[in-house]
Write a structure and sequence with these properties.
By secondary structure, this protein is α+β, with helices and mostly antiparallel strands. The chain folds into two domains: 117 residues, no CATH class; 98 residues, Pantoate--beta-alanine Ligase, Chain: A,domain 2 (2-Layer Sandwich). It contains four helices and six strands. It has a four-stranded antiparallel beta sheet with strand order 3-4-5-6, covered by helices on one side. A hairpin with a 2-residue loop joins strand 3 and strand 4. Helix 1 packs antiparallel against helix 2 and helix 2 packs antiparallel against helix 3. The longest helix is centred in the middle third of the chain and has 54 residues. The protein starts with a helix and ends in a 16-residue tail after the last strand.
Length: 234
């Protein structure tokens, strides 16, 4: 079932354009408005589903991502070709609906990619911002004790009030474990780093205390990534 859902979502997205054409030609204008509103909702669901279920590039979300990216050009070409054929048959209002509706449908089809890079990128940036506060706490600990803490929990309660974790989109009432950034102190290339996982789980994000910079590495990078990040300090 986990692999069936992204396939069904992609098939649904492919059917949106033919349904819109049918509604424009044979139904009242309000039917097209309702249909496009539903397409927007479906696109938002597709974006969130892909990001939450990406699973570090091993979950069903990656299938939705790949299918979306591969089928988008086909849908775009179909929209252009059908538009040229339909326009002589449509009045001005229905032409406008076709143009606006086509853009909405294309965005719905691209939603899995937009969700992964757009929403995922936003969540990763917010995780870095939240992590900056933890960095300050670690630097305060190091200044007072002459060494870095072995784990984040050692910062509580003198430097941090509780175990730090940032849950992206929780302010919208959306709570997903995969979008919660937990932080750990790790070694990367012999350096002390503050590390967390990206929103889609496909890469590690870490702060290097020597360079003072945030970096990231995926499974395919030769540096410190999810498969070769080094050992958690014990």
């Amino acid at each position: 079932m986990s692999l069936l859902l992204p396939i069904l979502l992609t098939a649904l997205n492919l059917s949106l354009l033919p349904i819109l054409i049918l509604l424009i030609r044979r139904a009242p204008l309000w039917a097209s408005y309702i249909f496009l509103a539903a397409a927007i909702v479906e696109g938002i669901f597709g974006a969130l589903y892909t990001l939450v279920m990406f699973g570090g590039a091993f979950g069903p979300g990656i299938l939705s991502f790949c299918l979306s990216a591969s089928i988008f050009p086909i849908l775009f070409i179909g929209w252009i070709i059908m538009g040229r054929r339909l326009f002589p048959q449509l009045d001005r209002s229905r032409r406008l609906i076709y143009n606006i509706g086509g853009i909405i449908i294309l965005l719905a089809q691209a939603a899995p990619v937009i969700g992964n890079f757009g929403i995922g990128g936003y969540c990763d940036n917010k995780a870095r911002e939240y992590g900056n506060e933890i960095v300050k706490a670690i630097q305060g600990y190091q200044k007072d004790n002459g060494t870095y803490p072995e784990k984040v929990e050692n910062l509580i309660p003198d430097y941090l009030p509780s175990t730090p974790a940032y849950s992206c989109l929780s302010n919208l009432g959306l709570h997903y474990d995969s979008l919660t950034a937990d932080y750990q102190i790790k070694k990367c290339g012999g350096k002390i780093s503050l590390a967390t996982r990206s929103a889609d789980g496909s890469s590690d994000i870490w702060y290097d205390f020597e360079t003072g910079q945030w970096s990231s590495a995926s499974f395919f990078d030769s540096g410190c990534g999810p498969l070769n990040f080094g050992q958690l300090l014990m």
